[in-house]
Amino acid sequence: MKDEKYNYTLSKFSHEVRNPVTLINSFLQLMVQDHPEVATYNYYDKIEENMTILRSLLDELTDYNHAANLCKDEINLYLFLVKFTESAREMLKKDGIDLVLQKESAIPRIKLDPVKMNQLFSNLIRNAAEAIAPNEGRITISLTCDGDNIDIKCSDNGCGITQEQMDTIFHPFVTYKKDGNGLGLAICEEIMKGHNGSISVISVPEEGTEFTLHFPIS
Fold first, then answer.
1. Dist. CA 216–CA 112, nearest whole Å
2. Cβ proximity of 137 and 129 under 8 Å
3. Which residue, among 150, 139, 140, has the nearest Cα to 105 in the 3D structure?
4. What string of H, E and C letters represents the secondary structure of the chain?
């Protein structure tokens, strides 16, 4: 788990920043109500855009702080992923990306936090989609169980990750994307730690990437 002192500091920072951000946003809305012409100012849209980015970052900081705080329920993991992939598949169609779900063995019911699982798989699918060239992509999620553990692999045929990047890919605030904030995979790792599991990655540049989620059944 994250160091408690670090977690407290990050939580306090997020809270202290959110307050003035909320006030600034409120003042902007009031200003536009009283002076509608402000919205036609050349840079007003940029101000709104950056406020949205800042709020999104604060939301992700909150998600990171609470990633390992779970509300578990016994679920059928395969059926959960069937529903998840049905929804995600529709969103990926517009980019010409196929999403495939494969069950390679019987999968027992397991206690997980379904909300956090949805967040985790959404992050992985989004990262995979961003790494794939439009109209020529494929993402595969496969499940297998050896009796003691469940392994889920999420693989893609995207641009891949260099070894140097893989060394820091789960570190918070480390990103190799133009508009990334470096929290998506850090959140995934914290969610897996909260489930007493682990996440690992292998990748070949220009060929693809595979993330493995390892869940102990007990």
1. 11
2. yes
3. 150
4. CCCHHHHHHHHHHHHHHHHHHHHHHHHHHHHHHHCHHHHHCCCHHHHHHHHHHHHHHHHHHHHHHCCCCCCCEEECHHHHHHHHHHHHHHHHHCCCEEEEEEECCCCCCEEECHHHHHHHHHHHHHHHHHHCCCCCEEEEEEEEECCCEEEEEEEECCCCCCHHHHCCCCCCCCCCCCCCCCCHHHHHHHHHHHCCCEEEEEEECCCEEEEEEEEECC
184-to-27, 40, 120, 169, 173 alpha-carbon distances in Å: 30, 35, 8, 10, 9
Structure tokens at 104: 């390679």
Give the CB-side neighbour count of residue 94, counting CA atoms within 13 A: 4
Q: What is the pLDDT of residue 67?
A: 66
pLDDT band of residue 10 (cuts 50, 70, 90) is: low
Instruction: Convert the pLDDT of each residue in 148-183 to its tens digit.
Output: 999 999 999 999 999 888 889 998 877 777 666 778
The alpha carbon torsion through 13, 18, 19, 22 (nearest 10 deg) reads: 170
Classify strands 208-216 and 198-204 as parallel, antiparallel or unpaired.
Answer: antiparallel
Calpha distance 207→133 (Å, rounded) = 12
The dihedrals phi and psi of 80, each to the nearest 5 degrees, come to -60, -45
Q: Measuring CA to CA, which residue among 192, 52, 179, 53 is closest to residue 127?
A: 179
